Fold each of these.
Amino acid sequence: MTLVADESARLLETAARAARAAAGVVARAPRPAKDAALRGAAAALRARSAGILAANEADVAGAPGLSAAYRDRLTLTSARIEAMAKGLEEVADLPDPVGHVLAEWTRPNGLRIRRIAQPLGVIGMIFESRPNVTADAAALCLKSGNAVILRGGSESTRSAAAIQACLAEGLRAAGLPEAAVQVAPTADRAFVGAMLRASGLIDLIIPRGGKGLVTRVLEEARVPVLAHAEGLCHTYIHAEADPAMAREILKNAKMRRTGICGATETLLVDAAIAPALLPLLVADLRALGCDFRADARARVICPDLPAASEEDFSTEWLDAILSVAVVDGVEAALDHIRRHGSEHTEAIVTEDAEAARRFLDGLDSAVGMWNASTQFCDGGEFGFGAEIGIATGRLHARGPVGLEQLCTYRYHVIGTGQTRP
Amino acid sequence: MTLVADESARLLETAARAARAAAGVVARAPRPAKDAALRGAAAALRARSAGILAANEADVAGAPGLSAAYRDRLTLTSARIEAMAKGLEEVADLPDPVGHVLAEWTRPNGLRIRRIAQPLGVIGMIFESRPNVTADAAALCLKSGNAVILRGGSESTRSAAAIQACLAEGLRAAGLPEAAVQVAPTADRAFVGAMLRASGLIDLIIPRGGKGLVTRVLEEARVPVLAHAEGLCHTYIHAEADPAMAREILKNAKMRRTGICGATETLLVDAAIAPALLPLLVADLRALGCDFRADARARVICPDLPAASEEDFSTEWLDAILSVAVVDGVEAALDHIRRHGSEHTEAIVTEDAEAARRFLDGLDSAVGMWNASTQFCDGGEFGFGAEIGIATGRLHARGPVGLEQLCTYRYHVIGTGQTRP
């Protein structure tokens, strides 16, 4: 059944108005109530595990044409449900970001001014196949005092509804409004369009998924968006790199997990060190199953590498493929990154502090690293406890988006009768 | 001449690409260069004062149908040019927000993480009649390391060009790219549309002007916007207010300047104190020339007040008119504000700290005040030195937008060869 756009807009408006009312309650809920809701939801996930698995089986059975990888992402197991429950409990353990005094000062006229962290309001989360995102995203939104409307993949609606029922049980038991966590009331794609146009009803859209989904959201949204369309991350091995460190970092940055946004897609290596080091780097990665796309200068050193097209350097492989270019120093590396990068995460490996400074200063990326693997671009690794995504835009938040980034702020100004001259 | 939209888009793209290149330079410019550019521009404004006045006279002569108020806002005088020059020097004196370490921590694995303030990039400023905004906005954008494209009112193009020439002189003398401060190359309204659609070319749009302009920008923009469409500010006089303080605060909040966004538009007064206090408040304001729109309960106490319609309570008067309602306590006041307010600035006057806490906690507004005039909602009064506007949205910045709010951040992660397990 395809709903007309107006029907989707009506459903969205109903959901968003309920979310707005709930947001006013959870924004002011004390920490123990929010944590109790999360722990209650975790208990419900464990107690209702059989029902969730049955719902998920029906989802998987109802989507026969899926690729094996997609099918794997869609499938829940007892272990995955337990991981979801643990995830909720871990978020309950995190500090409450709401009400935190971010800054405080007193004016010469005696006015005391406080900048205080406050929830954003109503968040719209749009994601693809993994049903566990329902629980993870709901937990982070609730803990940060926000209401959330979750729109997962249309093939996972039964799983999402079963997970949402557990969250509702937790909220109810904690005396919080169930409407703080809602799943889309329809699998119709027009509902996504309605979310993207819901200016004034939804305060922030967070898309999580492939480049196609995120690009559509960024292009169509009339609501602010926190996202990254891609993570075309670079590791630059400077002439003064420690060769052993460079080899370990590159192996990890490229091959630890190839499908995450912080994985290195392109190796830039200084001409001065490339003849000695590049063959070793290639051998290391080849032993791990990596393939290459190399520019002409790299192929002079390693003639057996496949040639890269210009477009290859603008491709986020998300796979065991590495683009390779030989460059002449920091400025050339920065030029390459500005031409091809996505302002996500780039790393330099060098023992030369001045070169590292020039590289980091010259980047516009959300995250610049010195002598570390680009795969550290992650909310957990940053110490945020958990993340709802990574942002590469310029406004509000950049890099990992955790509880703190799911808040805005407001001011309290405390006087003793002051009037403005 | 009306340009086709494509021609405007082409002009905008050319300006924005030049701005992007300049932004890369001013983002990394040391403080002395930026300050020298601002002081040089101030000197140029003084030196070229006669030429600026002549350009402005031509603008005023070329727009004969204007209201007196609009004509006054459009007109420059020697004193106004001197004020612009002083404004540039004051911004030069402000601390540089760029590169400020906002947070810094070390992870258990030894990674050092720094969150560092960074310019936003290219800002589009859309404003109405006052030509001095050209200088003020340019100064704040440049000092915060951003490039800016300024689109003022179509009737002030000669004035804007004359002022921009002074800024260009300052930039040139300081060795910074002139393209860091550009004015729209055409007065065609289609250029505004092109700015609003310039996703990826412009990072942030700041509109300054009437509700019509700001609403159009908020509705049409595909680029993030910082703005307030209106400032429908409330002063709530609680039952436990100090009557003398309440009278002074209300006089100031309503009548100090009626045309600014922080001016109080609605008085809410508790039923318990209204019979004694409301007649005094009305007499105070009437003596200053204020008119009223009162609800039925207020008119029982002051029968000579004109009756308010429901719509009056949702009207930002920006004039010597005050909407008045009698309410029953903090929750009723908050209800009224949620129904009619614009999440800009609201104040409570009370000696009861618990009532003040409930009021401030219950607000969603950017600024909540206790025993102070709503007219303090201003970047200068907050200690920011200057402001480019006031934001009431939920993302990025709320309240006065100063140098700090014109920055985003990025991370530097400093390791010693760490790889992610």
Amino acid sequence: MFAVTILGNNSAIPTTERHPTAQVVTCNEQLLLIDCGEGTQVQMTRYKIRRSRVKHIFISHLHGDHYFGLIGLLNSLSLLGRTESLTIYATPELEAILQLQLECAATQLKFDLHFVPLRAENAGVIVDEKDLEVRFFPVRHRIPCFGFVIEQRRKKRKIIPEQAQAYEIPAAFYSQLQEGADYQRKDGVLVKNHWVTLPPAPSKKYVYCADTIYDEELIAQMEHADLVYHETTYLHGLAERAAERYHSTSVQAATLAARAGAKRLLIGHFSSKYTELQPFLDECRPVFENTELSVEGATFLI
Amino acid sequence: MFAVTILGNNSAIPTTERHPTAQVVTCNEQLLLIDCGEGTQVQMTRYKIRRSRVKHIFISHLHGDHYFGLIGLLNSLSLLGRTESLTIYATPELEAILQLQLECAATQLKFDLHFVPLRAENAGVIVDEKDLEVRFFPVRHRIPCFGFVIEQRRKKRKIIPEQAQAYEIPAAFYSQLQEGADYQRKDGVLVKNHWVTLPPAPSKKYVYCADTIYDEELIAQMEHADLVYHETTYLHGLAERAAERYHSTSVQAATLAARAGAKRLLIGHFSSKYTELQPFLDECRPVFENTELSVEGATFLI
């Protein structure tokens, strides 16, 4: 399972209908939280996201609509008895803010909180696990801001059962076959791994572009992604305002997705001025047909 | 109009049904916000509270369920174009937290933000306006914490129309009569104010006791209040746990209200462990009949 669930799709000012930015990526058994606007913890409850399974939290930047819900979530996790450690990836200032808030409340979290500071000059891999890799990259916004590439690694080779049986390889050796090992038979025959397996399925890739001005340098990050999330704060009629505020429009997001050869585009971070979201799709689809609205509570397979 | 509207009635962990502490006091044309847990700004929208009319915000203490929604509210007020100044009354550390958050976001609020630091040794009057007085007092909690006494002053004397007409006082002079002035007639007669007016109605008093352990010293603050808000985090069976955590129970709140001769008691800050609130009323009313549950969205006249 590799999917993303939308918890908030709105830009700065929350409404009763739309919440500020937050998404949960499910990668096999693990949950990753990307951004955490005010109200995220309640949205997690509403959409039955198991908070306890989140081990990594990525904060793109320190505008409030992307992180004001984080301290409340940490607080609640502690009150609910979490003991497993949690890692936060963000610009280093976030650590100072959280520490000050915990100190003023005389709160000692019941779990270890690790911080990985994000600085543009160190862009690259930040999570490197057996079936998961996360990289970050800088994007152009009013303050330091980062996007994330999340890859579900599929390293296991695929066994061809008829072949493995034909060579009389015992089932107990199958997991080693998946890792690429050759099999030495007792009669002296060395069964080469590629005789009995196929290469792993290609990794799947989700690219989260955070808040950004229209920037063609993003194309390199988005290339061949299975799913790209790109903000569309405004409809294209407000392209000038978007640029002034370091945000993007519908048509701009769709243009980048098309040029990058992405498979699918997810748009969000809609300005509160829009009550209807359909016009965003109507503007994107002629440019990049495979566009979806990040509707709160919806889950998109990657 | 002197009333309190409940925006949040829950203790630490918010749920989809109940929000952390926040209340709005309406005093004539003015709104006062008391505490501001996560999600308060959306609750204000939901219950049609005009955020622009809030000029004073009182934060009882720096546990997150009483202030995590403040930075988001300030941010939104600024984005919505507020220019009128706003005053926050809280322990001094709050100013450092908010300044750090604004700085990291490179946000310059569009309005002046004033801070009035609350320190136990200075307990007393913090707002002194024509028709409104607010005092603060320390309460006993795990960290520095304060309660507030909000008085709607009624300084205008009440004109007795028949008397004022009998003395031939022109209507244009009525507002001066309400302020207590005598009237000098052209024929030389000095009409004494008390011949034609009655004393002002007595002030009305709302006492907000914040988060507190059972503490009989609160009785002095609550005396003869028209409405007292006292937390009841737990039902009385958990009195021991309440004391350990510097919180109170249903029966304890009711006992204090009864002993103080308060007219009405409002209870809230219910632990998330309780899904039903009726048992809180059932425990309070035998001790102090005039008890009400702080139901979200409900308005109580003071």
Amino acid sequence: MVQKSTPAKPAPDSTRRSEKSRRAIYGAALALVGEVGYQKTTIEGIAARAGVGKQTIYRWWASKGDVLMEAFVDLSEQAAEAAQPGRQYAIPDTGDLAADLKAVLRATVDELLDPAFEVPSRALAAEGVVNEEIGRRFVARLLEPSLQLYVQRLRAAQGAGEVRPGVDPRIALELFVSPLAQRWLQRTGPISYEYTDTLVDYALNGIAAPGDGKSRIG
Amino acid sequence: MVQKSTPAKPAPDSTRRSEKSRRAIYGAALALVGEVGYQKTTIEGIAARAGVGKQTIYRWWASKGDVLMEAFVDLSEQAAEAAQPGRQYAIPDTGDLAADLKAVLRATVDELLDPAFEVPSRALAAEGVVNEEIGRRFVARLLEPSLQLYVQRLRAAQGAGEVRPGVDPRIALELFVSPLAQRWLQRTGPISYEYTDTLVDYALNGIAAPGDGKSRIG
């Protein structure tokens, strides 16, 4: 796992100790949920594996769901930082929407195929499918914020005249994001750069033959 | 649950008894997996709930995975038969691709929102996310055959000049099927007829502004 860059000013010893415990707890939580699943992961198990007392965990988090959610947010931030150090949390805007979407989806392909990400993510996603409360928190805390980056990029493209004004960006993004998500989650097909490039081309240009304007909309 | 139409010629008593047991076993398997999840569902539990001996189940199926998979195939067939009695297993071809896709997706919306379907389907889908063998069987036996119906319909539309010749139908169908699947599985947004109609319009016509042909492909 990539280390976060340390602050320029040295932190006091107690802060550094806390940071070290927090990292150990996140690592233990992600490893455990990947190995035994969400149901069988416990605060006790996380504490034992991280080498901290149970009370250390309860001081910072109310439940195992909270620890795990924070551990995933941290994992995603680490992955993003490793892919593009110091990057802004936005989809690049080079003025070429297709190229920008393809670049971000290729980075997502790399992330989905990374075992450090895949194993715990599958465990949390599976729990979210059957456990509505966990599912909704997973979406609100992790999935929706990243989807909103596509909304912003598509809105900018509408402003630049690249996307039709009548299109709802929140639905439009699903044309390329959801196929990749389903192939990964349900293993309905292979995942590659060529595949995500194709999704972007189809979503932007449509699959209908040119001039077949039967259901052309505003 | 809808009864299958009985054969015109009366079946012998032993066949009718077998059919009754088979239905009871399917019903018990689906109810149990919805209540306690895939992991905790056992052949013993299914047998007890169905009021049959364990050996009756083992005579017909090798494992709980086999029973459940068959129970789901049967559930899907019952749902399809209830929606359109005597229908062919094909997507209608009225010559209007958009209308045909919208009609099928509206029927899928109804199925996904039916609790009799939703609860056991979520349990099996969740297991498939973390259990690769179950996931792959679920796709091969249930998901991919229904996706192939879209492939056939899109191929016919290519033949009729409605869809661009260079488009890969197996990828193209994901532009409208996968968003619905993800909203259902991960609860990333509401599901409605208006939503699936919009997906079809976007997928056919694209979201790019007309004349923005930067990445127009063959």
Amino acid sequence: MKLYTYFRSSAAYRVRIALNLKGLAYDAVPVHLLRDGGEQLQPAYRAVNPAGLLPALDDGGAAIGQSLAIIEYLDETRPDLPLLPADAAGRARVRALALTIAADTHPLGNLRVLKYLTGVLNVTEEQKLAWLHQWMSAGLASFEQLLATDTRTGRYCHGDTPTLADCCLVPQVFNAQRFQLDLSPYPNIVRIHTACAELPAFQQAHPAQQPDAE
Amino acid sequence: MKLYTYFRSSAAYRVRIALNLKGLAYDAVPVHLLRDGGEQLQPAYRAVNPAGLLPALDDGGAAIGQSLAIIEYLDETRPDLPLLPADAAGRARVRALALTIAADTHPLGNLRVLKYLTGVLNVTEEQKLAWLHQWMSAGLASFEQLLATDTRTGRYCHGDTPTLADCCLVPQVFNAQRFQLDLSPYPNIVRIHTACAELPAFQQAHPAQQPDAE
């Protein structure tokens, strides 16, 4: 299995965690988001993933894009150490938590969006940081509410084993810390992030541990 | 089953299509995104969905949020007329297409984001429209590439029956048309949108056909 990845890509980080939690070996193929106007947009990578987005998984057939689709695929084809609960209601909750990060939070702080804000709309660095904090805090506040109001929250986001929700939460907390967001309003998130950070699967997926880390 | 919905919400529109395609009856509970500073943020709705986001599905237990999580839940609990293919690779492709809209495209044109652009960053109406076109065209171009380069594309996004991918595509095209985006660079999208628009399931889910339409 080959994973096209970039060390600081939040979406690639999610998939690296998932692969590690499931104990699956893979070859990392670095794609540099900033070199040559973005290697992900060049023909070589477009031949792998026509969408021109990271990450992508090559498992023999057509490459699979989109981190959540990749993780669901891994869970379906390698059912040991599942990342989704056994019951439909639990799976719905875990997917909703994951999407609260992957759809509602992360896309607004993406590199291409920040480049547009500064390059086209000429916002200041201060305004850029306020933008990042606005959407990260909105997303993390929703996530915290979903954790705080549900008895299914455990040592991790859903029960006492890590799921797809934790795979999404940890990279978002990494981003929040990188941009100095105050995490004290989100005690469940902080607690769960600490619990995840103790596990080798999360440690080894960290951006600083990647072969292409700068 | 109760669906908390707003006629023009793209995410609620996806779920309405899915419910109709699966032939499932539901009660629509309108939540007005603009009234009272957003009814979705008020305590009455927060008691249903603590995340304060639309849509949400009430199927007896805890309400389920996030359109894609709701559709997966419906497909798991009501397996007739499936919205995901039978094979893992096909499911991965359909989910990746859906996320290309739901994660990469739609969140950047959301109401709250547009309000921030005009209200906080003081962008002009012209700049707002350029922003919308930028992200809609990027997302639709990726989607078009995924359709054009894959033999699994059929009358609909994946084969000859509608899937989760079509549930996401049609509301995004509605948004694109609402903001006068030129769709001619995306012939597969236009063709599939036309095929979907012929089906009653899509027609009845259209914003203009909702009880809360304005």
